[in-house]
Amino acid sequence: MKNLTITSGRALLTLSMVSCAAVLSWHLWSYYMEAPWTRDAHIRADIIRLAPDVSGPVTEVLVSDNAQVEKGTPLFRIETDRFDLALREAEAQVQSSKAAAELARTDFERYLLLASKEAASLKERQHAESQMRQADAAYQLALVGADLAKLNLDRTIVKAPASGKITNFSLRRGNYVSAGSAVGVLVERPSIYIAGYFEETKLPRIHIGDRVKIDIMGEPQSVTGRVAGIAAGIEDRERSDAAGSLASVAPTFSWVRLAQRIPVRIEFEDVPDAIQLVAGRTATVSVEPKGD
Known about the structure:
3 helices, 16 strands
């Protein structure tokens, strides 16, 4: 009887341990294979490329790399000599065109009076009217040229288009900058977000508005966020299309099929000032589905 009790106890203990191991294994499998979390997440930001609107040599650099700036803050200045001359030339053209337009109008009024007394032909009056209209158009064109020259002169001072932090900015006095060519990048803090790349098998448990726990590598405390959006599509590397032709699909098959990674946009909520949100940092994100 005693041996039977010991044997039964051992069997019960073994069964209990096996049951606990099975339950633990199931939970681990569910967490790693089905729970909506990923280590493949990165901080990203919508950046503004800083590029001048006019070309020329830089005469003064007013900010340094990694500086925090407000919208409208002057960043650097471009040499203005050429643009000053262009503005003077445009203003002179305005004066000349204005005088020509006034003279043409006077001539037209004279021919209009003569035509009323039948002292000038209809053709002469129409020609005078045409000359007046052409002179007025030339005057308006000269005004536009003057405004454009003034605008180009104003654009020699390059200002911050938004509030944020400047990075990758190594411009120096004497460098020649070209219109439209970026010389640095401005990162707006409100545009910073997390891009989490989740396996497609986990998407059914991710919904817009779900709360997200974010662990940024190197930071001692977690931050929170919300699911803001799920990507509408990713590239299909097994298919290539050309306009006006049929789809070309690579005839490949793998025994092990890896789940595709789908980008999920996560917006930050309350972030302590001590945490540095640097675009490119790595993070681990875990989505807490609604109702959990």
